[in-house]
Fold this protein.
Amino acid sequence: MKNYYNYVATLLITVIFSFINTEIAIHAQDTQFDEAGIEGTVLTSDGEPIPGATVSILLGNEELVTGTNTSLEGEFQLHLTPGNYTLRISYVSYSTYEERIELVDGEIYDIGEIRMVQSTQQLDEVVVESQAAAVEMRFDRRIYRADADMDAIGGSALDLLENIPSLETDFEGNVSLRGSENVRVLINGRPSALLSGGTDALAAIPSDNIERVEVITNPSARYGAQGDAGVINIVLKRNRLTGLNGSVSARTGIPDDHRISTNLNSMTNNANWFANLGFRYRDRPSERNRFQRFESADTSFQYSQNQERSRSEIRGDVRLGAEFFLSDRQTLTPSAFFRIRDRDNTSDTFYRDMDLSGNLEREVFREDREDEDRTNFEFDLAYEFDIGGESNQKLTAGFKFDYQPESEASNLREFNQLTGEDIVRQRTDNRERTTDLLFQIDYTRELGSDAEIEAGIRSTSRWVDNNYTVEQLEDGFWVPFEGFNDDFRYDQNINAAYGILSSQFGKFSVQGGLRLEQTRINTELTESGDGSGQNYLNLFPSVFMNYELNEQNSVQLSYSRRLSRPRFRNILPFSNFRDSRNIFTGNPNLNPVFSDSYELSYLRLWNSGSVSTSIYHRYRTGVVERITELDSDGITRRFPINLSTQSNWGSELAVSQRLFDSLRLRASANYFYSDTEGTFNDQVFERSATAFFGRVRLQWEVVDGLNLQSTYWYSGPRSTTQGTRSASYGINSGVSMDIWSGDATISLSGSDLLNTRGRTTIIEEPNFYSEDESRWRTRSFRLNFIWRFSSVSG
């Protein structure tokens, strides 16, 4: 292990010195170029200076070139290369100010005094554009604006994530970041009960309700340690325009996907009221084909399987809230969310049993009819106090309550297709209740002009009660199915505290943080009396070092330690009876996965585009893998265990380039190498694998208000614990047109136009072979309409 870390350190030092040499070369070149600049003062309408206002320089309205914050006197000054830019200034409770500027060689442009207008006032003289940067690079994250993606218009959060560099989604709705599914997904910076059952619930969040997505590949101590692959933060929309404003949207699609929703906002002098309402009906077909062969001393046979599924649902959503302005510096924001959903799931599975020579022995048909009802209720209370003063102090506090009851009832029948004779009839009843509580406080304070401290505490609790009953029809009576009837209880409490110190020394900035988390988990099967408990205390450090070579070039080195606690479906010890021959069972004794992540990044900006590149390494222990075993009845059983240690190395490249005034190219690629080693039942599992994921997108503004977009993505083949997984690829395209003087937009989009989205997984063992081809979603088309209205201009 010591040699391993020496190797890591040696490699990082080598790369750092390579970048230092690059810096020297760049500085040598930069001395030959002229510089331009801009300076000014940001004031209130009464002439008072505004310290801490955000000043950004953009290429057009998209690429962030550089930025700063105003001083205590409201002053700012920036140096950059000559050219045409957009100056944007923003501050809380004030309308954003924008102005086109031209910077000339060797001159400092003095823009003078800029008087900001409070957002509660009518905008008569100041021109405000709502267009924001499509992609922004921050100190510890990348920010993607939701409405810049035409492929996701009228879609869901899952559709939006599919088109973001570094992210992938699979046929089950899982989201992975740089090839790992151990990613933490937050909504408005906090965990949500909507995602307690898995990230496939992201398909229920309309993309129209999303303002931006933040991708954090190496999170700081500010964030909970959960999610060793990183954090995805989905920020929902909330308007601050005066008067009544909002939007109404409608959609229809193939396969059936119909929705109508509205976002409303009304701002007065004392409060900002907001509401989101939506109704949706959809039907999601999917298919799965599997072939399995078994060869052993006491049983040898093979079979093919074809499964067709349909998940149709009716859903209604309501979100209500208000932002109360207690004073000029204090806000209190309560909000509530309610969702009711009724889903009908059907699954038809056809088996063809054969001997090893391929001779048909029998045909079996299994049908599953499931009724699923789920209700979500969330209450959120947020408090913000901008204390201000010379140290620019800020205090925030939050409380959140989530409650989610759910019931699933299935009727299953399996019969001989040739004779019509019943083989087995079963029924299941699963009732689950999940309750979540969260409380947190965060505090920030400046230490002079070049340093800042941040600290906070957070406590989260979760209680889950899952009652599972299986009955089988025998001699005309329903009797309990032995071994599958129990009540599983899961209690989790996590208490955390963190501190962060940030400082800047000229062009060099550093941030160091430490997070302490205590985790208590108890599980219990009330019928059998089986249970387990875990109690562990861990420290999670994080370090970020950033060096700005010049206004267009910067380098960052970061490190963080994180963990990934088991997902609930991986610890739930009950089986899914949809497929009687392939059964997955959770493992309540799973331990968390710990990881150490290192990343070195480089960002280069120029007038027409940008490029960012990074190399990263992640070392993980206690990695959870799904093991597949064959029992004496020829049934394959899958279950998760803490199997292995894993070392991942990777590199990532993202490029954005304006080819012409109306045509932009965005491309990203991610390549990584993984080395995994583990032992189970005296069998050694070792694999070394490489994987590649890439995406290319073209955006063309044909004329003002008419836009085309097309995206091609490719996910390469990769090795799994016991086999391989095939490559997959697809094309998504969309066209949008603004109508009614820009107050409305109509768009048509298609997903997976070639109908190639799907994956094949192969498992090869000495006496067992399995080939599984899955297609979670089929080719789809959506027609969308959105109308935006406002009682004020701007």
